[in-house]
Design goal:
five-stranded parallel sheet; binds flavin mononucleotide; about 40% helix; Rossmann fold
Length: about 170
């Protein structure tokens, strides 16, 4: 199973990147799984994405390569940030029908429905199939760059387990 993790955050202290790395760590222990990680902070990317064709094309190649995709998002104005939207818009054309999962960092407990924007984009645009479980965490779940909340750690375990189980069947 080939899994692509795309982290959309541009923040140097990104918490969704930490969540993505925790998922990567867990998936790497699963038999027959190859995980590729795209940290969008390292890409030449702005909302004016046509100017960053080279990097966006690289992401598109990884999307094509992958059996399934995990998106890391930070909530911005109850939605996805502009960098992730640019990646979705430009690079996800070959994501059609693939399984996807969402891990999300937010400032507040009440923004959890913001992930629905990502769901809508993936399902309406590419008929992707979502793992019906999201990892959602606020700053309270972290101590520095470590996840310390037992609840979130348990969710990361369950998310990775289920993503692997279903992903393998669909791959
Ligand atoms: C421009 C901007 C808008 C934000 N909007 C929201 C919001 O609507 N709801 C919320 O819970 N947090 C909001 N936040 C807080 C972020 O979701 C939070 O900092 C989260 O950790 C971002 O993910 P990241 O650390 O991976 O970048 C916002 C942050 C920024 C910078």
């Amino acid at each position: 199973m080939k899994t692509l993790i795309i982290s959309g955050s541009q923040s140097p202290e990104s918490r969704s990147v930490i969540l993505c790395k925790e998922v990567q760590k867990r998936l790497k222990t699963k038999k027959g799984t190859i995980v590729r990680f795209i940290d969008s902070r390292k890409l030449n990317i702005t909302p004016f994405y046509h100017k960053q064709k080279a990097d966006m094309d690289k992401v598109a190649k990884s999307v094509k390569w992958a059996d399934n995709i995990i998106f890391g998002m930070g909530v911005h104005c109850y939605s996805v940030n502009s960098a992730l939207k640019a990646i979705l818009d430009y690079s996800c054309g070959d994501a059609t029908g693939k399984l996807f999962g969402i891990v999300c960092a937010a400032g507040g407990d009440r923004s959890y429905l913001s992930t629905m924007h990502l769901t809508q984009i993936c399902m309406n645009e590419w008929r992707m199939i979502q793992l019906p479980r999201i990892v959602y965490a606020t700053g309270k779940a972290f101590d520095g760059n470590k996840v310390t909340s037992k609840d979130v750690l348990d969710r990361l375990d369950t998310f990775a387990e289920e993503f692997y189980r279903i992903g393998k069947k669909l791959a």
